[in-house]
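Colleagues,

For the teaching module next term, I've prepared a clean inverse folding example: a structure given as tokens, and then the sequence designed for it. I'd like students to try predicting residues themselves before seeing the answer, so please don't circulate the second half yet.
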């Protein structure tokens, strides 16, 4: 897919919205010069889920930040948010169940801001698991998973993905098994685009710009 607008500046708004366990902290970055694509559709909404809340994950995570930047360069408005119990979001960690509900609430809110926009969904690490679990229910148009923790959580009872999707994995990931992710991706039908950054660890230190370029190359 070609970018629907040239990379440009965005207008950032931070706010609290109602969530299933109280307030959810949201960062909405609206492209200043978003345009429609060749089919006349408005700019999509890209919603990105952050890594594990208990281990310091938040919407300010560098991988989440670079994914949002890449999506904006592809012509999408972006939404980041803190799961319950993180930052100004209220509530407590709920082992992925409540966090999935948080994502559903954020997407519902975001789509109310731009009802005609298609949904792009992404997540990093724990956030990749949440994004994957919710992708079918949310009828996302595209899905991007970065370092999905397939050897840490139950990925067996998630419906197959029926949308264009991409998995990006660091070859030297010290948290998630790169070989397990590769095997899992290869067994999916339909299979995702599978991209590996051979020298990247879990947090893509020194590889963030390369991660962004890999993301953009898949669209």
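(Answer key — instructors only)
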């Amino acid at each position: 897919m070609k970018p629907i607008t040239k990379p440009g500046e965005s207008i950032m708004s931070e706010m609290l919205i109602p969530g299933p366990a109280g307030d959810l902290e949201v960062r909405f970055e609206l492209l200043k010069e978003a345009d429609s694509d060749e089919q006349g559709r408005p700019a999509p909404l890209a919603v990105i889920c952050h890594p594990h809340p208990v281990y310091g994950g938040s919407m300010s995570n560098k991988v989440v930040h670079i994914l949002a930047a890449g999506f904006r360069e592809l012509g999408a408005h972006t939404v980041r948010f803190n799961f319950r119990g993180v930052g100004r979001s209220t509530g407590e960690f709920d082992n992925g169940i409540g966090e999935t509900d948080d994502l559903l609430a954020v997407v519902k809110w975001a789509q109310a801001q731009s009802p005609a926009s298609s949904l792009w969904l992404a997540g990093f690490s724990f956030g990749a698991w949440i994004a994957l679990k919710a992708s079918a229910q949310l009828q996302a148009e595209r899905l991007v998973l970065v370092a999905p923790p397939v050897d840490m959580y139950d990925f067996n009872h998630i419906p197959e993905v029926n949308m264009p999707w991409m998995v990006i994995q660091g070859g030297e990931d010290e948290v998630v098994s790169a070989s397990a992710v590769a095997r899992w991706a290869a067994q999916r039908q339909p299979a995702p685009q599978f991209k590996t950054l051979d020298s990247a660890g879990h947090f893509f230190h020194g590889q963030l710009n390369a991660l962004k370029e890999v993301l953009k190359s898949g669209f």
